[in-house]
Specification:
316 residues, alpha/beta, 6-stranded parallel beta sheet, two-stranded antiparallel ribbon
């Protein structure tokens, strides 16, 4: 294992970066106000669960619905709360090149360890254009960078060949994939077969254990906001290839996925269920930024009952 240096504050991040890195929800009181007490409780909750890092301003963090002011504030406050205990990764995805760099500079100034970048959305990039974009932005990037494959929202896929080429650009140290495409996982793993130092993490928690068992480096799993210890235990069991532990832990993860994330009727049900569960657990507000809204009382009661069926207190 080696380390890469943050050019701004001389911190180092071990690569490949391994473990469970929750994509933090953004606790909100309204569309432009952070739930500061909730943010502190959430950060302490997941750190106490033994996670290996924190990723803010990703899809689960509603980054695209937040003002630039709020993104900067969340970055500053999260870095201050974490205080160097675990690495902090900051999402800088934007349709504007300059805004991605602006937030990367804020992240560096605040002491973050790395940034995470999905393809610019709205205009779809071709693969040569995407690679050139990464080369141009890395020329000014103050922090190590993970590329983020999220085709359902960006409508662009980092092809395996583009990932392989991106891995040669100085400062690009890894990738998070949320495609839920097992064939794609294998293609990227094969393309990176000679790059043991390049981190490859998976978003969908349903596949995390299998992914680690076949050489993946860990998971950026939304459920770790609620139950960090569960996901850390599943990761550790997978690293150890302890199938007696993996099987019941995986079943619990699938119970969460098939219940908490499916109370709603739309694509937003995952986020609504996750935030509602955190609210029921007393951790943070469940306000969701426009154009969405939090669950109303009937759905909230369903989430409460599902948490009880999970025996959720035993998972804390």
């Amino acid at each position: 294992m080696k380390s890469v240096k943050n050019q701004e504050n001389q911190k180092t991040l071990n690569v490949p970066f391994t473990g469970i890195v929750p994509p933090l929800v953004t606790p909100l009181l309204d569309n432009d106000t952070l739930d500061l007490e909730g943010l502190e409780r959430l950060v302490e909750h997941i750190i106490s669960g033994g996670v290996h890092g924190i990723f803010i301003l990703g899809t689960t963090g509603e980054f695209a619905s937040l003002s630039y002011k709020l993104r900067r504030e969340l970055t500053e406050r999260t870095c201050r709360l974490v205080n160097g205990r675990i690495p902090v990764l900051v999402g800088i995805t934007d349709s504007a090149f300059a805004e991605s760099l602006n937030l990367a500079k804020v992240a560096a100034d605040c002491g973050a360890d790395a940034v995470v970048l999905a393809p610019p959305y709205y205009f779809a990039s071709g693969q040569p254009e995407l690679l050139e974009y990464l080369q141009r932005i890395m020329a000014q990037m103050p922090l190590p960078l993970f590329i983020y494959n999220m085709p359902v929202h960006t409508k662009v896929v980092f092809s395996p060949d583009t990932v392989k080429a991106a891995a040669t650009i100085p400062g690009i140290i890894g990738m998070k994939d949320s495609s839920s495409n097992l064939a794609y996982f294998k293609q990227v793993q094969y393309a990176l077969r000679d790059r043991q130092d390049f981190t490859f993490m998976v978003g969908p928690e349903e596949f995390m254990s299998e992914f680690v068992l076949t050489g993946g480096h860990g998971g950026v799993n939304g459920g770790a906001n609620m139950f960090p210890k569960l996901y850390v235990e599943l990761y550790n069991a997978s690293i150890a290839r302890n199938f007696e532990k993996i099987i019941p832990l995986q079943q619990k993860v699938m119970q969460i996925s098939s219940t908490i994330y499916n109370v709603g009727h739309y694509g937003s049900s995952y986020l609504k269920g996750l935030k509602c569960a955190l609210s029921v657990m007393g951790i943070c507000s469940d306000f969701i930024a426009e154009p969405f809204h939090r669950f109303r009382d009937p759905e909230r009661e369903k989430i409460r009952k599902l948490l009880e069926e999970l025996n959720y207190r035993e998972l804390l």
